[in-house]
Design brief:
The chain is of the alpha/beta class. It has one domain: Rossmann fold. 25% of the residues lie in helices and 20% in strands. The chain is built from seven helices and seven strands. The protein has a seven-stranded mixed sheet, sandwiched between helices. It is globular and about 50 Å long.
């Protein structure tokens, strides 16, 4: 398996000018958050490899890469996947630097809420990490999953679990346990106001995720735990009615 990239040695002057990602604006200040996040993401990556057993011919679309080059866990799929030449990645942020870091990889910028610029079932697997919670209402989240599956044959999506005691994006403990309307009303009055908008953050429980996984998706949902505490959710399966891993 490919080793983690050494960011400092790979960054060119143009990469240093990449805009800071809004998604790390608060979590980056939380002690040990990056270390813990990378540990969990490695676990989820290993699960991806176990489920699909991809090889050098497997085509993968990664939906939702980030412009961030400061956090070790950023774009972890590209760091770890052994066949970068088979990755096409898209995002609303500027991910062009990934083509410099991982030769053979293709990046394309997309617009939030718009159809992906690919043919039906063009990719063997569509992967997406920690994007679903940023796509808006439950209806919009369901549409996002449907669009992922339109362009793929199989899918693998991850999202934070609402019941983890520290909210992944704000770094605040327990506040996100409140009803969503109250959480948004309180954060809207603080420096965390970005996360008060449903279009920026709509975190899910396992039952929420199962509810938005609608046909033709045939999905299994798993819980990822840290020290016994549910931290993330994984959903994977078939977009076309076939068997997972086929």
């Amino acid at each position: 398996m490919k080793q983690e990239s050494n960011y400092k040695s790979l960054m060119s002057p143009s990469m240093n000018r990449v805009a800071e990602s809004a998604y790390y604006q608060h979590s980056k200040a939380v002690p040990f958050a990056s270390w813990l996040s990378l540990r969990v993401r490695k676990k989820m990556f290993n699960r991806f490899m176990e489920i699909f057993s991809p090889d050098a011919k497997t085509t993968v679309l990664d939906v939702g890469v980030t412009s961030d080059i400061t956090q070790t866990e950023s774009n972890y799929f590209e760091q770890l996947y052994p066949y970068p030449q088979q990755i096409v990645c898209v995002g609303t942020e500027d991910g062009a630097h990934l083509m410099q870091q991982y030769p053979g990889l293709t990046y394309q910028k997309v617009e939030a809420g718009k159809p992906l610029p690919f043919k039906n079932h063009q990719f063997d697997i569509v992967f997406s990490n920690a994007v679903l919670e940023h796509t808006g209402s439950c209806e919009m989240q369901a549409k996002f999953l449907q669009e992922m599956c339109r362009v793929g044959k199989q899918f693998f999506v991850t999202t934070p679990n609402r019941w983890f005691p520290v909210e992944h994006h704000t770094g605040l403990p327990f506040l996100h346990y409140l009803p969503a309307s109250l959480f948004r009303a309180l954060t809207r009055r603080t420096s965390y106001r970005y996360w008060a908008e449903e279009s920026n953050l709509n975190i899910l429980t396992r039952s929420d995720l199962q509810r938005i996984l609608q046909p033709p998706l045939q999905a299994q949902v798993e819980t990822v735990r840290v020290l016994g505490i549910p931290s993330n959710l994984i959903a994977y399966g078939s977009c076309t009615g076939g068997r997972e891993g086929a």
